[in-house]
User: What shape does this take?
Amino acid sequence: METSTRTLLFAAELIEENGTYTLVVEDVDKGTVQSTPVPKAMVDKLPLFLTALTARLGPVQPRRGW
Assistant: This one.
């Protein structure tokens, strides 16, 4: 029986504050955090981007907690 280990590499959050959106990405290994403003038009398209990525790369296996 083969076992696998999952390692969290990056964690991302999309934060909305007073109509302004910010993408925050943490590099868990390096312990660094980067953030950038994101236009609402891109936020609105995020589900489309994720669908296209899934279609190109294949379905992602469901996560089972960290």
Summary: Strands lie at 10-17, 20-27, 32-38. The chain has a mean pLDDT of 90. The radius of gyration is 15 Å.
